[in-house]
């Protein structure tokens, strides 16, 4: 059962998402909150698998809520998905840097929304390569030197290769095929890189890969 927390200051939005989620046998909405502060408190109380958090709310916004969740060791297994009305913007990128696993635009189709919740619950990033390139091109002004970036020095060559493939949107099975290794070994490389880079999930590996210069964004 996938346990979900909804955090949005608009009751109509919350009720709409809840209605969709409540129809699914494998998903349960455990709590709702009207701002980020309430959301963090309820996350600590209910320990959901997924928190769907609006990016712009009064009192405590989605970025700060994500930052608090990411800093709480008791919530390390929880995945934050940011909800936005506007698609790609600086707020979304800042939320990803704060620890969000991805983002969804609120006018998403119902079947795509449900699929995204299940994807996030598996720990996969909700970031298509084309979306990633647009974000990085717009909000990362200058990739860091791959030879001097501290995080990169911690990684083995195979771990660097795996992180670069994660940034291209590949799954562990696809990484295994590309690197000619077993899926278990691919997963091990990715997991070790996450530990060394203190990344909560694959989305943060994507951001790291572009910010460090390990992967250079191409024009869309």
From TrEMBL:
Gene3D superfamilies membership: 3.40.50.2300
Manganese is among the record's keywords: no
Pfam families on file: GerE, Response_reg
PROSITE patterns with a match to the protein in the record: HTH_LUXR_2 (PS50043), RESPONSE_REGULATORY (PS50110)
Limits of the HTH luxR-type domain: 148-213
SUPFAM superfamilies: C-terminal effector domain of the bipartite response regulators (SSF46894), CheY-like (SSF52172)
TM stretches of this protein: none
Response regulatory domain residues: 3-121
Residues bearing PTM 4-aspartylphosphate: 54
GO BP terms in the entry: phosphorelay signal transduction system; regulation of DNA-templated transcription
Keywords: DNA-binding, Phosphoprotein, Transcription, Transcription regulation
Sample GO molecular function, one term: DNA binding
PANTHER family: TRANSCRIPTIONAL REGULATORY PROTEIN NARL-RELATED (PTHR43214:SF24), TWO-COMPONENT RESPONSE REGULATOR (PTHR43214)
Stated name of the protein: DNA-binding response regulator, NarL/FixJ family, contains REC and HTH domains
Organism name: Actinokineospora alba
């Amino acid at each position: 059962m996938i346990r979900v927390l909804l955090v949005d200051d608009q009751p109509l939005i919350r009720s709409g998402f809840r209605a969709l989620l409540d129809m699914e046998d494998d998903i349960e909405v455990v709590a709702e909150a009207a701002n980020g502060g309430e959301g963090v408190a309820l996350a600590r109380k209910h320990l959901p698998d997924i928190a769907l958090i609006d990016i712009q709310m009064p009192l405590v916004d989605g970025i700060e809520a994500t930052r608090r969740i990411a800093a709480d060791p008791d919530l390390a297994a929880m995945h934050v998905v940011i909800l936005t009305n506007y698609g790609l913007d600086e707020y979304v990128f800042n939320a990803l840097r704060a620890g969000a696993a991805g983002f969804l635009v609120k006018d998403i189709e119902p079947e795509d929304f449900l699929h995204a919740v299940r994807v996030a619950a598996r720990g996969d990033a909700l970031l298509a390569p084309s979306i990633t390139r647009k974000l990085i091109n717009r909000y990362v002004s200058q990739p860091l030197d791959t030879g001097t970036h501290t995080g990169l020095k911690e990684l083995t060559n195979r771990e660097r290769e795996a992180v670069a493939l994660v940034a291209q949107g590949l799954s562990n099975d696809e990484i295994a095929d590309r690197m000619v290794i077993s899926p278990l070994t691919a997963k091990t490389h990715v997991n070790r890189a996450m530990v060394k880079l203190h990344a909560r999930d694959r989305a943060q590996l994507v951001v790291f890969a572009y910010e460090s210069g390990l992967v250079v964004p191409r024009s869309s």
